[in-house]
Amino acid sequence: MKKAHLLRCARPTRSNVPQRVRLRSSVFARLASETFLIGLMRFLIGDIKRRKLILLLLPVVWTSAVSAQTIKLKVAYPTTVGSMAVLWVAKDARLFEKQGLEVELIYVAGSSKVVQAMLAKEIPISEIAIPAVIQANIAGADLVMLAGPNNKPGQKIMVKPEIKTPENLKGKKIGITRFGTSDDFLLRYILGQWKIQPERDVALLQMGGSPEILAGLGSRGIDGGMLSSPLHLRAAKLGFSMLTDLSTIGVDYQGAGVVTTRSYARENQDVVRRYLKAYVEGLHRLKTDKNFSLKVIGKYTRISEADALEETYQHYAIKVMPKMPYPTTKGIQMVLDEIGSRDAKAKNLSPASLIDVSYLKELEQSGFVKNLYGE
Questions:
Q1: Residue 103 near residue 92 (C-beta atoms within 8 A)
Q2: Which of 248, 276, 309 is where one domain is finished?
Q3: For residue 90, what are the domain limits?
Q4: 137 with 285, same domain?
Q5: CATH number for position 167
Q6: 134, 225, 242, 333: which has the highest count of C-beta atoms within 10 A?
């Protein structure tokens, strides 16, 4: 007990610790506290600087990352009429960039020329009609249509005013873009319906492109030509008459759409998926943003007349193109039947062998299209 008492008495207390020792201890505590605060402040200031630096560098890092992931893509189109509007709107609305694609649009007059570039692997994706796809695949190509918003013919046969009836076409010269194109196919089709023999009764002249057909009419070098909106209105102002509007003949027809090769689609599924997502959104923008779409159509067609642009917009964006750009199998079969009457190899093809709608179905099932239209 005595020993324990002595031990307790030996413990230092505040009262028995010398004043000098207590002061030194308090100084050390204050210094330690100040050092901690200074270190904390330096850390916080450094953290703020680091945050500012990160914020400054973030756009650069982000841009570099996006650039590294952006895929460059050349896409060809064969004519400067309204059937190309979805492609043009998607491009100018920067919807391809939204999907990480840097798309370069290249105008190549005539779909047969576009096909040549595709088979040479210079162009991976194009906007062409089904007759060119069929003709190429008959010859051994592996082209496939992935989307086809143009499911009605849009061409008009514009002729000199003295040509009043189909019978008056005999002995005349009619301008088309190139053989194997929509112009060529549809003119042959309608001439067949009128019991007029191409080449024998009517001369079909390859002009190169739609602007060249219009120029041929203007110079009176040809008696008539196949033109679509808005160029047929230019021809009307030059004094030419509309012999027939093929959009009124009551047939389904697969016009321009997204075409690639099966090999490219197989090896670049993600690129194709992103391209079609931008394309479908471009179709939505075309149908829902009239003012923007009119400006874009005017830019690519080089048409400024309000009536011509309005007619073009109404025909394609409102009358012809559906929300989901599925190709028309009925329209493709019609083309196969007509080509099959001249080339037996076409009979070995079916609409299913010429299209792949799996990407569109995937988009539709994901709810992407309904979200676009707010449905």
A1: no
A2: 248
A3: 70-152+262-372
A4: yes
A5: 3.40.190.10
A6: 225
pLDDT band for position 27 (cuts 50, 70, 90): very low
Give CA–CA dist 145/109, Å, rounded.
Answer: 19
The pLDDT score that the predictor gives to residue 52 is 55
Q: Please, what is the Cα angle at 327 between 190 and 245, to 5 degrees?
A: 30
Residue 352 burial class via C-beta count within 10 angstroms: exposed 0-12, middle 13-18, buried 19 and up: exposed
Same domain, 280 and 146: yes
Residues 6+ apart with CB under 8 A from 180: 111, 112, 115, 131, 132, 135
Closest CA to 321 of 181, 146, 147: 147
Of residues 48 and 241, more confidently modeled: 241
Residue 239 burial by Cβ neighbours in a 10 Å radius (0-12, 13-18, 19+): exposed
Percent of the chain topping pLDDT 90:
70
Decide if pLDDT at 18 tops 50. no
163 and 147, same structural domain? Answer: no
pLDDT band at 88, cuts 50/70/90? very high
300: how many CB neighbours lie within 10 A of its CB? 20
Is residue 64 domain-resident?
no
Spatial distance between the Cα atoms of 156 and 270, rounded to a whole number of angstroms: 38
